[in-house]
Amino acid sequence: MRLLFIHSDHLEFEARETAGPDGLAETEGVPMEGRMEECVTVFASVESDDEADVEGVVENALAELRDVTDQLNTGRVVLYPYAHLSEDLAGPDAAKQVMRDLETELEADGYEVLRAPFGWYKSFEVSCKGHPLSELSRHVAAHRDEDEEAGEPDREPSEWLVMHPDGSVADAVEAKADVSGDMRAFIEDEVEGIVASPGEEPPHLELMREKEFVGYDELSDVGNLRFYPRGKLVRDALMAYVNDLIVGYGGMPVETPIMYDLGARSIREHAGKFGERQYRFESGDRRMMLRFAACFGQFSIMRDMHISVNDLPLRIYEMSTYSFRREQKGEVAGLKRLRAFTMPDMHTATRDMDQARAELMAQAKLALQTSEDLDINYEPAIRMTREFYENNEAWVEDVVADLEKPALLEIIPERHHYWSAKIDFAAIDGLGRPIENPTVQIDVESAERFDIEYTDGTHQHHPPILHYSPSGGIERVMAALLEDTATMDTPQLPTWLSPTQVRFIPVNPDAHLGYCEELADDLEAAEIRVDIDDRNESVGRRIAGAETDWVPYYVVVGDDEIEDGQLGVNVRATGEERDMGLGDLRELVEGDVGDLPQRARYLPRHVSDHPHFTGG
Fold first, then answer.
1. Number of domains comprising the chain
2. Which of 485, 520, 541 is where one domain is finished?
3. Which residues does residue 128 pair with via DSSP β-bridges, in sequence order?
4. pTM (2 decimals)?
5. The CATH number of the domain where 219 resides is what?
6. Which residues contact 91 (CB under 8 A, 6 or more apart)?
7. pLDDT in tens, 106-137
8. Phi first, then psi: what are they for 259, rounded to 5°?
9. Do the bridges between strand 159-163 and strand 169-171 make them parallel or antiparallel, or are there none, so unpaired?
């Protein structure tokens, strides 16, 4: 369970509309609006691990609450369910039970408690006092009786360091002054638990709707998205890009089912092993599961193969277009936290740990290539057990040197995951919060668990397996791209991802449209996405439309352009107008795109034929 404490002058909220199906939202025993003065506001996320021992996590959360309120000398508490503190949430029933039990126990202790309802879209206003103890965060875990009876101690906390490309190492918090602003924000979130801009909506949510990329579908389960033509083009281009990247690296594409029988032993025992929870449903007399990613399917393929040592490293790849995450209803956030997503997923069987380490380094560098191609800054985090770090310290130094930028190191005292080492890459959004995208992990359990073996001609061996996504979820990449635009003086997407790459604006559509059609035909023959704003609007309004649509290059075409063949090309990136011929414009766009994938235009050529998908 994650808690964020805000010592508040006041907190005021109002439940606006229910989120999800009937029965999810609390409607009895909790106010739909409220205000409390001079209080501690407790934003709380109940996590999946908490479901195993709700009583224990409530007990430990109460201890933290009492400690904080004692320090702040107040007995007034607002309990506010707030799922955005965690990426691994408990189910709705467990979350509601924890919040209710906290309220009951606090009131029994004499606290004055205001609890916001679960399962509602709520507006709220909070005023933070702004002193050294006014913002505190805690991560609470349950003490399970069986662990205590067995004498198992609590897990030791991770050690957090920053390693520089020259091999120097420093404490992560102390290193904040010597790293970039993005790495500093990453450290504050990961190490110190500081949530940037709590309660604020990520900028990309407004942008995805305003630019008619993506919207929520009210007829679907809450959190499922619909992609309009502009957004689908960006998504499809990103998928094509990742496919090309992985196939070029040696990944072999496959396709596997999205449904699995929970009666199957290997699936039943290992469901949830890979950091996500799944949708389950009844199908006749069978209990089925929609898998969250391609792990099970690819492991099934590897299990049934005859793998020789000469086949290694063996890279199996899938663009999993139907992956799911059981997000708590009503607690989704645009393209960053959503129910259904697209996950490029590759699994690499390796001969031994030496080959696994070599593959991890190569795949991490490939992830950084996506950073360059997408023009997104990624900050790396290398997470590993202490045993792995002590045995591979020189290798870790080589990895950071190859990454050519400081890396956050998390050293975990003991392994309690299926992986022994992993590298995550995070973009930082417009509010200073990380969006974790590419990841590569060395899995030391799954080969044995799923009976995956290779032969060296004499003996059978279980291969170390790497889990790899060179981009992370495609929708999260889109979120990072849009978040990046929110910090730009002149926002725009990379030219290869821009839904319209060139727009022609005829001064007089009746007189100049035909020439614009000829220009467009020429560029389309070169696979450039071009449209023509033929609307019966002033030139100024149509120029403003090109700016609003983030068109990288637009040209106003009149008599002069037709007579001398020279075009005044407005370059969005620099804000300048440059005179050039059509061939120069074509080369300019092709230079931007390079070897990256090009897709045909998804909307009609004439802007007058573009429908409005969002009503805005």
1. 3
2. 485
3. 8
4. 0.75
5. 3.30.930.10
6. 48, 51, 326, 328
7. 999 899 999 999 988 899 999 988 776 778 88
8. -120, 140
9. antiparallel
